[in-house]
Amino acid sequence: MGKKSPEILEFQKTYGITESEMWEVRPGSWAVKHSAIERIVAARGITFERPAIIEVNTAEKIMVICVFGKMGDRTEWSFGEASPANCKIAYPASIAEKRAKDRVAIKLLNATGHAIYSEEEADEFQQHRQNPHVTRPADIVPATDYDEYGEVIDNIPHAEPTQKLRVADQRPLFAEIQKEAKAFNTSAAFLAWMKEDNTIARVADFKPDWQEIFRGVCKDHLADLREGEADIRMTG
Description:
- This protein is α+β, with helices and mostly antiparallel strands.
- The chain is built from nine helices and seven strands; from the N terminus they run αββαββββαβαααααα.
């Protein structure tokens, strides 16, 4: 990880962004979690007007909107775009909204000149954060949820491994199962897949920290799917 510039450090300190909410996506450029930006938006009283719909093509999964935001007497606007070319999630409207709002918020916070982006800006920003070789699972993905009996909630249950894999052997298997998980377009199908014996067994063979990273990846993807489905229900 590269050294943060004084401007990045000041931005992080001013808005209370934790180390796990910001990561380097390329030398000198940093991504911030969408949830952290939402928290700052609420704390700073940033408001958004109803977006202007620029393009909608449900058949091609294309969505482009323009969002206008205000903080005090300042206003900013920016576009949010989502299409198969820049988004693998099946709910382009939800992603376009996140991208547009996050861009506007970053402008209002005077952070556009400091190489700061939202994690929603590009798929590779999230993929970088989900790299299983970067740091501790808790630093890069959300923690797995458990019920009062210690059972995993809406994720892949724990199981005994059937083989001992080397790190070199884990890498392609992790990439394969992550790609498989991200291909699901509905929460119901994704939840069913996570409960399948074959899925549970494959994850159980990973080292414990890799298992937790993958569960965090699944938790994020499930949240995105559910948010997209909720948007569809609201719009009829």
